[in-house]
Amino acid sequence: MEKNILEDYFLEKEIDVSGKKLVLVIYDIVDNKRRNKFVKLMESYGVRVQKSAFEMIITQKQYNSLILRIPRHITEEDNIRVYRLKVSGEIVTWGSGMTEPEEVIIL
């Protein structure tokens, strides 16, 4: 693997983090149509960091809204995990990361 990269989200852009949480959402949604709608929902809150993972820095009100909206996009066969983390935490990554979402074409 390439050398590790320490990501400091606050160096890239100025974000007022007072009263906000770093939230990680990971998912496994089996149906393409539901998955695409779920991805659009996640993109409205944060950024995709892996194929099935989004990170976001959001307020408690936004978090509550997200938690209420998620069940509308999934069924019992899907698996969603939401982690609230301290914003002051450190993130260490390896590899190239997710720069552009992959386009899925089904014929």
Description:
The protein has a single domain (5-11, 19-93), classed as Alpha-Beta Plaits, CATH 3.30.70. Helix content is 24%, strand content 31%. The protein contains 3 helices and 6 strands. It has a 4-stranded antiparallel β-sheet with strand order 3-4-2-5. It has a two-stranded antiparallel sheet with strand order 1-6. Strand 3 and strand 4 (53-59) form a beta hairpin. The longest helix has 12 residues, at 32-43. It is globular, with a radius of gyration of 15 Å. The protein starts with a strand and ends in a 14-residue tail after the last strand.
Which helices and strands appear, and what pairs or packs with what?
Layout: E1 5-7, H1 9-12, E2 20-28, H2 32-43, E3 47-50, E4 53-59, H3 60-69, E5 79-85, E6 91-93
Antiparallel strand pairs: 1-6, 2-4, 2-5, 3-4
